[in-house]
Amino acid sequence: MAGLLDTIEASRTVPDAGAVRVPGGGSQRRIAEGRARGWIDVAAPIYEALRA
């Protein structure tokens, strides 16, 4: 599956179009980055709700 996603994201776009995006790709990238550095950003209201 990862190979297919890489192929899709590397696809050429039509003129004047943005990069090809895969649903969930940004989320997966942020999760991987957070795991690599050992912490994640959490919005203050969510953090407070979790602490309550």
From TrEMBL:
Name of the protein in its database record: Uncharacterized protein
Q: Which domain of life is it from?
A: Bacteria
